[in-house]
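Write out the 3D structure for:
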Amino acid sequence: MKKLIVIFTVLILNTVIVNSQDYWETINVPDNIKIMCMAANNQNHIFLGSGGNNISEGIYRSVDSCNSWEFLGFGNSSVYSMNINEYNHIYIGWIGNIYKSTDNGENWILKYDGMGNIICFDSYPGGIMFANSGTGTYVSIIRSLDYGETWDEVMIIQGMVEYVYDIAILNQDTICAGTTNWFDGGGVYRSVDGGDNWEHIGMYDFHVLALELNSQGDLFAGTYGNNSQFLSGVFVLYKGEEEWTQLCTTLVNDMKINSKDYLYAATDFGVLSSTDNGQTFEYINDGLFTGDVDDLALDSAGYLYASSYNVYMARSVNSTLPNPPIPSNYPENFSAHNIELEWTDPVSGVLPHANLVLMSDISFEAIDIPIDNVLVSDSDTAKNILYEVEKCIFTNLAPATVYYFKIFPYTINGDLINYKTEGGGIQAMKMTKE
């Protein structure tokens, strides 16, 4: 949960209001909690981190589509952030500490003991992780290259009261961090060498609460105010460009991008959606609770979750991923009355040009031995199969019938054909299904 208090008038640019059936359904959450963070594993188990004064702090889990919740611990302090990697290992940010669970939240092991509130994580397949650390005048970014087992400090924020609010990883080399400075500074930092070195790439003086990278490498920043002017919203730095572009004006608390590069922004006025890389936005608030939306999460099926610090939670009625197109045609020759034959061609000696496969529904003896220099044309009972293809199929056969096959390799030179026929050929038999 990343929340700032800023008072000014907000205009929404390039947005429309959606009027249709409800986009959201309400989810009941445990009593007396305040949702600080959410995450979903690839089994679509949902995890909540709770925190705040006079409430039930800790971690909660649902394994039945949010119909019921289990308390997993950490009831004596707020859980500020959460990340789940490709192996369903769960990481939580506590007061200065990072804990890890490898058994779906049943047990937890301390992996980092630092200072300040760990308020943001991100991970990348292969064990790469980044998080914030520190407080006050000493704030840093920490990195793990071994699935959170060990951590090292890779950047110290130079300035007063500048906090890292979000981290986005494009690949093992490119990592971005969004910060907020209450006095002067802040913005977006980027590393292109795996976190060893960092540079400030813009959004100076903005309160950057959310960062997301799409599959093309475009970087989106969600902002909630600015120290020097009343300007806020969603901005983008397109890949290869140096100037940021403002896409809409609103108060952004969080953002998520799904696997189709659809962008969702949690705002003080609901959830904004863009399916065209931020060119247009629309509010998708039908069925959603009223008030601020502070956090978003996506599960592996593409369902979108929205929550408010004031104990509200909702899930999209349908997946955010579009239905794949329906194929134009059915396959042809679909039948249980087909027989496919396979073999292994020789790799030494005189190699054949092709193989003649002959079939009979009577017996092996009913199959005629081919005659040299006479090409047998393809038919329902004969197939010429080029060397190294090593399989063929006979179709539209009678059900529950035994069929007999022989195979004869041959060489060819112009009109001359020489079959290998000694021993009567290699034979096989097979029965079709009912």
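Residues 339-431 form a domain with the Immunoglobulin-like fold (CATH 2.60.40).
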